[in-house]
Design brief:
Layout: H1 2-15, E1 24-25, E2 37-38, E3 60-70, E4 77-88, E5 93-102, E6 108-117, E7 123-134, E8 139-149, E9 151-152, E10 157-168, E11 176-186
Antiparallel strand pairs: 1-2, 3-4, 3-11, 4-5, 5-6, 6-7, 7-8, 8-10, 9-10, 10-11
Length: 187
Amino acid sequence: MLRALVASLSLLLLVGVFPASADVIDDGGGPADGSRRPAPAPPPAPAPAPAAVIDDWNRHHLSVYLSSASTSDFDASEFNGGGEYEFQFSKYVGIGAQVEGTTGNFRNMVALVPIFIHPWKGLRLTVGGGAILDEDNNSDGLLRVGIGYRFNLTDNITFAPEYNADLPGANGDNVNHLFGIRLGYSF
């Protein structure tokens, strides 16, 4: 009888009715009848770490500026072009350098150190001081105030329509209005 019981249990183990010893534990804390219980499930895998937050702005921005420069009474208009570099300290504030030249009757060069405020999305406010050098090599101080909106065409390529007003120094009598666009590269 004992042989028949051992043979039956061996056959059941081979067929797979009872789990193999690796799948059960016998820590002595099982039921009082001595039967074995299944091993606990392994702990769940830790949740993946949240993705790093990527800012939607780049610290450096280079651009080419193309505009129409007009006098305060809008009686004359000339082509204006130049370049700009901006370094953003934060998402909201940057500082830069602008160099521009105007053709035709105005024929001058402008060099500025502007401060840029980015209060909301692509909106950009500009306030900067610099110098204007006319065709006779006379220089004067200059204050520029402006507003524009930067559109991201790709992750790095930008397009910005912009208006700037150049307020002349003590020797100037005209406010120059500049309506233009900036094509830029952010990195």
